[in-house]
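re: ur question from yesterday

yeah so i grabbed the chain u mentioned. its 128 aa long if i counted rite. heres the sequnce exactly as i have it in my notes:
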Amino acid sequence: AWSTAGILGPVVVNYMHDTGIEAGVPFDQIYAPIFLTLAGLLVIGFIANLLVKPVADKYFMTDAELAHEHKLAHDKSIAANGNAANINAVSAKSGSTLVITTLAWALVLVPISYGVWSTVQKTWVLFN
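ran it thru and got these structure tokens back, copy pasting raw so excuse formatting
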């Protein structure tokens, strides 16, 4: 819900603002209907939150079902760890894991570093 509001809120505000400008509405009267619309959306969201009910007990797992699922997950984990150990041993011999990991981190850190550097430069200009 919050992510939807984070996307739709600015879209609604921008659309209503642009529509008001194109219609020739005086600038001091543009935001009143926008704020009323956003307040209405808040009221609708509040009512929707009040309508949410707890999940019925019949949908919860019993202790026996939960224990069975834990056992299955444990068995899968043991099987996966055995396979992972074999895969890691093979890839460690080839050295491909280190190369792939380094490239993956580079793909992540290069754009982040650029963003941080750009932000630092722009804030430096603002405060100096």
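noticed a couple things. The longest helix spans residues 63-94. also Residues 95-128 form one domain.
anyway ttyl
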